[in-house]
Design a protein that fits this description.
Helix content is 54%, strand content 5%. With 328 residues, the protein is mainly alpha-helical. The chain has two domains: 1-216, no CATH class; 230-328, no CATH class. A hairpin with a 2-residue loop joins strand 1 (14-20) and strand 2 (23-28). The longest helix has 27 residues, at 62-88. It is globular, with a radius of gyration of 21 Å. The model is unreliable at 4-27 and 323-328 (pLDDT under 50).
Amino acid sequence: MAPNIQSSTIEPEIAADITVDGSKQAKREFKAQIVWRNVAIMTGLHLAGLYGLYLCFTAAQWQTIVCAILLYIISGLGITAGAHRLWSHRAYKAKFPLRVVLTIFNTMAFQNSIYEWSRDHRVHHKYSETDADPHNANRGFFFAHCGWLLCRKHPDVLEKGKTVSCEDLLQDPLVRFQRKFYLPLVFVFCFLLPTVLPNYLWGESFFNAYFVCALLRYTWTLNMTWLVNSAAHFWGRRPYDKHISPAENAVTIIGAIGEGFHNYHHTFPWDYATSELGPKFNLTTCFIDTCAYLGWAYDLKTVSPQVIRQRKERTGDTKDKGPYGYYN
């Protein structure tokens, strides 16, 4: 869920004799330490993205803007249909051609390799809203959105993350290949091609193409992904499990091309559609369904309507019926 920014794994000090309820016990003391190199990278990236947005209104050709939007969707699918639903959750299976396409799309997204993204996401689900959660929403909106990339990891993320199995990921030769050659592949698919192709195909300047199709598109895609970690853990309805923070968030349903049905997803993480609505309002599910029609995707996992209804009645917020027939 993040660009390839290095996070230090230096362990903080261990504090002993901490008074708790009048007694003393050993307790790990943690103080967030900012990684200023990451802050500088993120600041520069967002300033460049804003300049790319300025060029959309002043200098860039309309074809370049359309291209940036298409690349945002394509790279987004590399995260949603690829790293998330396919590799992290094994919610469906994909034949080799589709895995090649999703690997390319994922590389264009530049949010860490498939292996690293999936590993962090599995840790997030297993230890959600605890210190072991890489983007723990209990530490605030900004931390959950992008602050977790700007400071050193909590030691629980490192320690408990080792208990999450990811061996299956490395059985895929495409995951191994991408991981081995990740940075050169990112240079080609995330930055070089989005800069060169607009110039070659319709005569856009390299300058405009770089700032609009590469940097603006990349920055926008990052923030749409991050909103699932932040906004979708703070605001929205909880019709499936009112006891957890993930919520159905309309902004991320659209911006993250279908990933905003977050209360449902954390309740039923194995469902390939991440929603009981199927393809409605869910571009990623439409993409997977199309691939299944073509024979590229198969064994799509779903949850029965009976199980969904029983879960809503047992743990859902029945006072908030909401739109789209959640309680019909």
